[in-house]
């Protein structure tokens, strides 16, 4: 291995190499086939192609390109266990038992390389020591509200449409839009008022909304794990274990993982401790 590639860089390359091209290819093919099929409105087989082909071709692209990324990424990244976990989360790859893995289209050379790379999974990942002086002394992580505001914006639009429908005596559709608006607002208004700190992390320790503040000397095995594509913060403390789902928080799982590493490293450095 000539150059060490970080897990984050490998994931970014995978997303740019697999996910984005697949989505763009699907969108372009749908548009092209739709324009092509317009003159054949009454031909069922043509419209079947409109649905089938734009999905099939990106799927073939995925099956061909994914093995190329797998070999490059796992050959150049040291912490392959973390890479695999996050690649599954980003849907770059699937779990070992998935049917999709059996459909991947491998070249003979890539398959041979991949089989040799399996020995890297017998070695534990290296611990992280991360220094980033741009991160402040303390971060307070709250509920993410941009999606809430977006939902409320669309609720306002639905309310306007509802009253417009009522004004034009379309009572059923107008009532539907107003009821939908009221339901959406009822589901989101509490989040707008929620200013609680869900996670506090600093040079001295960590606290979640469910736990008191603990020094880093009292905390162990802090990490981000995934349960059915939902990330959660995990750490062990003197009174038990904390598991806090973080999908709806203001910082992404990768940012929170970085905070854990940076603040743990700072604490160890300040106290002359080894991992």
Quick structural overview:
The chain is of the alpha+beta class. It has helices spanning 7-37, 44-76, 80-89, 99-103, 108-117, 146-167, 171-193, 253-270, and strands at 138-141, 199-202, 205-208, 214-215, 220-227, 230-237, 240-245.
Q: How does this model look, in words?
A:
- With 275 residues, this protein is α+β, with helices and mostly antiparallel strands.
- The chain has 8 helices and 7 strands.
- The strands form 2 sheets. Strands 1-2-3-4 form a 4-stranded antiparallel β-sheet, with helices on one face.
- Helix 1 (7-37) runs antiparallel to helix 2.
- The protein is flat.
- The model has no long low-confidence stretch (mean pLDDT 86).
SSE layout:
Layout: H1 7-37, H2 44-76, H3 80-89, H4 99-103, H5 108-117, E1 138-141, H6 146-167, H7 171-193, E2 199-202, E3 205-208, E4 214-215, E5 220-227, E6 230-237, E7 240-245, H8 253-270
Antiparallel strand pairs: 1-2, 2-3, 3-4, 5-6, 6-7
Helix pairs in contact: 1-2, 1-3, 2-5, 6-7
């Amino acid at each position: 291995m000539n150059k060490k590639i970080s897990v984050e860089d490998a994931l970014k390359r995978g997303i740019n190499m697999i996910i984005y091209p697949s989505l763009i290819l699907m969108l372009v093919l749908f548009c092209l086939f739709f324009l092509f099929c317009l003159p054949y409105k009454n031909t069922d087989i043509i419209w079947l192609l409109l649905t089938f082909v734009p999905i099939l071709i990106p799927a073939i692209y995925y099956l061909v390109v994914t093995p190329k990324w797998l070999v490059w990424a796992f050959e150049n990244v040291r912490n392959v266990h973390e890479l695999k976990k996050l690649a599954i989360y980003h849907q770059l790859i699937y779990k070992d038992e998935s049917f999709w893995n059996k459909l991947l289209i491998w070249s003979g050379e890539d398959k041979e390389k991949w089989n040799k790379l399996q020995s890297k999974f017998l070695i534990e990942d290296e611990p992280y020591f991360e220094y980033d002086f741009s991160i402040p002394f303390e971060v307070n992580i709250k509920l993410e509200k941009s999606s809430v505001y977006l939902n409320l914006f669309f609720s306002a639009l639905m309310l306007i449409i509802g009253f417009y429908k009522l004004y034009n005596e379309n009572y059923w559709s107008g009532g539907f839009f107003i009821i939908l608006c009221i339901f959406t607002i009822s589901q989101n208004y509490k989040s707008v008022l929620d200013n609680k700190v869900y996670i506090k992390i600093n040079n001295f320790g960590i606290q979640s909304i469910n736990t008191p503040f603990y020094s880093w000397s009292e905390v162990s095995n802090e990490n981000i794990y995934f349960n059915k594509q939902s990330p959660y913060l995990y750490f062990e403390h003197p009174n038990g274990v904390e598991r806090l789902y973080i999908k709806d928080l203001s910082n992404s799982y990768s940012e929170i993982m970085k905070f854990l590493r940076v603040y743990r490293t700072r604490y160890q450095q300040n106290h002359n401790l080894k991992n």
